[in-house]
Input
Amino acid sequence: MSRDAKRGEILSSVIEVNNLRTYFNLDDGVLKAVDGVSFDVASKRTLGIIGESGCGKSVTAQSILRIVPNPGQIVGGQILLQTDEEEPVDLTALDQSGERMRSIRGRHISMIFQEPMTSLSPVHTIGNQIMEAILLHRTPNDREAREITLEMLERVGISNPRQRIDEYPHQFSGGMRQRAMIAMALSCRPTLLIADEPTTALDVTVQAQILELMRELQDLYGMSILYITHDLGVIAEIADEVAVMYLGRVVEQGTTRQIFHSPLHPYTRGLLKSIPMLGRKARVRLDAISGTVPIPINPPWRCGFWNRCPDRKAGHCDVAVPALVDMGDGHRVRCFLHSEGQESRPTETSKQLRKTRRRRSAGAPHEEPLAEGSQL
Ligand SMILES: Nc1ncnc2c1ncn2[C@@H]1O[C@H](COP(=O)(O)OP(=O)(O)OP(=O)(O)O)[C@@H](O)[C@H]1O
Ligand code: SF4
Ligand SMILES: [Mg+2]
Output
């Protein structure tokens, strides 16, 4: 449950992610791409996820859709999706290639990617590809499915849809392909749309049009959106709430206003300082955060931002991981500056991984998989 910042109403969650952990078991060690992520997306609202490259944004999305590539595995946590049934379904407990999960993809959750060709096939017409999903999830009738497809193409602003429906992706421009992919994602009226950098490859005018279109379609169909990007300008435009990710964890979460007007975490402050602002003197250097996101292979048990943080305190930040703490108004932050002594605890999963590594160094087979859905 969360509160609508603008209207003060309590909203039900469409999806609730609790302490999600998705690890890649690599030759060099365990890469903790997502390491204890929790958030929820309220009905008909947009949650923006921001963070630099490698923070775990896409792996979080892949985990929700259960399409994490090998050797990645969900090793802990819950992903509770509200479907038409009374009780929410925990997606981590489903077989990733089973019928239930396949029907959830498309029917309840759809995804749009940065590169439309990730989801469009070059050898089938745009119309046939959109119709395929409609025939699978909405109606078995070909004629009706074609009419819905034409309506969707029109809604996303593709002119002359009766001609365009029978064209192939290579006959569409980049912006049009993005629109076609949105039409395909929305054709089954999903409750949750996950958009992973959907406008990064587009020029700013087309980007603005696509954002406007997504807002319109959200109002029309009442869907929730999880919008992933590293572009703060886009997030300010589209999101009601923002989760800032760093090194596989949410380090700050709040309403878009809280994040942009009163950021608490040194990482969020660094990100905000790195964007150009109108009125700033031309010769003032933009403060980019120094250093880069480390690769989280066997990361030490300390604050993930330790080696880049201008405010770090030895003996505190390098010996424990701060917990994500609510400041009382729904604004949550993971930093000892705001929550002295409130630590996360190493989980059973971490203990289990240490045991796996010990067994490995004692000669156990390297490929031993992590236990999916193991208890935290
Ligand atoms: N298939 C994979 N195999 C091994 N490691 C992976 C794989 N996919 C992602 N990772 C690692 O997981 C971590 C999180 O990656 P992720 O793709 O989620 O980052 P991101 O926040 O989406 O970054 P970007 O903004 O560049 O898209 C990174 O350290 C990345 O190298
Ligand atoms: S916990 Fe310490 S190192 Fe981490 S962000 Fe806060 S001040 Fe910086
Ligand atoms: Mg990504």
